Predict the 3D structure of the following.
Amino acid sequence: MSSLTLNLDTVHLTDEQFYQLCQNNSELKFERTTKGQLIIVSPVGGESGNREADLIIDLGIWNRQTGLGYVFSSSTIFKLPNGADRSPDVAWIQLECWQALTPEQRRKFPPIAPDFVIELRSVTDDLAMLHSKMTEYMNAGVQLGWLINPQQQQVEIYRQLQDVEVRNLPTELSGENVLPRFILNLSCY
């Protein structure tokens, strides 16, 4: 099953209504585009879920060693400055940026663009939709993003104000200046 996109041109959910929709339907995973389209995201299979967990573990270990920020799973919805509500598969926010949010903002859908995101394409993901999502992230202020595409054995690297870099798998990725000394070895994809 692939994701389902609902056009809500005439509905215009407020941020609070969207939050309540998500809370009242916790068995479903929602996202919202900058245009207000509501996306019901399909669950992933075992292979994608395991790969996603490995990515969170790798980033989490680095983050515990450095103490530079906070790591988030795909269950976290971020209220992006461009109006979208998105859930990256893996996200990271600098310590100072997270601490600048109020406790209420941290409890709900944090109104912040992560500094770093990873999207892992599962077999149910439409590649064009993922490209659009990555562009939304960059437009919202994400500094570095990786779109890992096991189906085509590639990874796309998104950086602010730069062209997308495409590498073939296996490869090794650097967190660059966003995640200092973070290296991800993508040899098992």
